[in-house]
Automatic annotation (TrEMBL), chain A:
Superkingdom as given in the UniProt entry: Bacteria
Span of domain FAD-binding PCMH-type: 1-220
GO-annotated molecular function: FAD binding; oxidoreductase activity
Lineage, top ranks: Bacteria, Bacillati, Actinomycetota, Actinomycetes, Propionibacteriales
Keywords: Oxidoreductase
PROSITE patterns hit by this protein: FAD_PCMH (PS51387)
PANTHER family named in the record: OXIDOREDUCTASE (PTHR42659:SF1), XANTHINE DEHYDROGENASE SUBUNIT C-RELATED (PTHR42659)
Official protein name in the record: Xanthine dehydrogenase YagS FAD-binding subunit
UniProtKB/TrEMBL annotation, chain B:
Cited Gene3D superfamilies: 3.10.20.30, [2Fe-2S]-binding domain (1.10.150.120)
GO molecular function: 2 iron, 2 sulfur cluster binding; metal ion binding; oxidoreductase activity, acting on the aldehyde or oxo group of donors
Ribonucleoprotein found in the keyword field: no
Keywords for this protein: 2Fe-2S, Iron, Iron-sulfur, Metal-binding, Oxidoreductase
Record's protein name: Xanthine dehydrogenase YagT iron-sulfur-binding subunit
Superkingdom of this protein's organism: Bacteria
Amino acid sequence: MKPFAYERPTTVEEAVALAADGGTYLAGGTNLVDHLRLGIREADRLVDLTRLPLDEITERADGGLVIGSGVRNSDLAAHPLVRTRFPFVTQALVAGASGQLRNMATTGGNLLQRTRCVYFQDPTTPCNKREPGSGCSAVEGFGRYNAILGASEDCVATHPSDLCVPLAALDTEVVVVGPSGERRIAFGDLHRLPGDRPDLDTTLDPGELVLAVEVPPLDFAVRSRYRKVRERASYAFALVSVAAALDVHDGTVRDVRLALGGVSHRPHRARIAEEALRGRPATPDQFRSAIEAELGAASPGEHNAFKVPLVRNTVVDVLTGLTEGSAA
Amino acid sequence: MAGHEVSVRLTVDGTARQVDLDPRVTVLDALRDELGVMSVKKGCDHGQCGACTVIVDGRRILSCLALAASYDGADVTTAAGLGTTDHLNPMQQAFADRDALQCGYCTPGQVCSAVAMLEEARAGMPSHVSPDVSDTTVDLTDAEVRERMSGNLCRCGAYVNIVRAIQDVAGQDVARAGGGAA
């Protein structure tokens, strides 16, 4: 690991100033410390955020939540308002990592974690995300985890987060602050598609710090579900995952929120499927045709073609399950 | 600035310690290499195996991914701080009674993890196998124990007896809670 200076500010202003000329923010460390050790990333100055007052979860007057970026995954998962009003957020969190890691990992760090593409994590192989211009080893290599939506010829990596999938389904906003002040980013605008700049995961400017995630109220999210499909029962990243909230009245879909994980460079909000479902009968056939419309743009390769039917079947199963749980 | 040492204070198994460290040093390496605390083990050093699990301020964490500088002031408990050879912690005794190990290398991490895991379950923390995540009462089935301990690998494969050992202690806790309420 390359030597770095270490700073531990106690105010946001101090942290932003310390990071302004090339500092690297450190939160839970579960991703960054490993990357520093492996040489995937280098830092000249680490700005430790753990002493900043960003670890609160507060309720907004409208029933929404403000989640500080320093809130640990385990605290967010166990929060009474999260587990009752947005159960798929808790389900996503407890489907990720291990008990130890959830005690360390933070909300802000979860948003900004890097892909688990095996080539990105192996500094001996070409990777456009790690080393721009070096090529993509995954396009014709081990492709089981590759993206099926929105990939480019330069990068086929997927976003690894579980938490981000329900956050994409909700109309979440991310509050950030940087050298030029504070701004709010719609969750769908935070993460990028790879295009020809796969080294950039997000639209954050250098030195910007995530302060909070704001979740607006959504009454029918009390009936929501996160389903993760992976290659072992626990402690593994998703092949694909589905976050859904469904509002059914008299057998008709009044409203729906649907997002997919493991399919794209960013958490994928399934807006085509949502639009296809609003006002339609809440039946497995409708669910199937809606998600097939969403997956019309899918461009899988040889090794990840299974993801298309896997997403389809998982979505149909999750939505059908939510329908069965609803009042007549 | 790079390369400057930082002063780190840790309470380790009840004893206050202070050490000047390169900021790259993890809690794991500070304990073993700087403070001579060998009860914490280095397995993968990547956050994948759980061998380095310690309890910090009541919570289980992976000491291999924790920079010591970031944990300045923390109260760290390793397996050696849970009990003594004469007075084993109930979890340590249960691991011995149930033969919940073979080579023993993962055991300190397993024991620390299990002790903190039971606290999490007692506090009502949900898990991936909880039938209803809004339910704050945890029914600690074998499936729950396995899920909650999935961050601790045992390459000897002593899992069956590890689950039994943890259930022995969890059962004692239930009995104690029941006795208190009666």
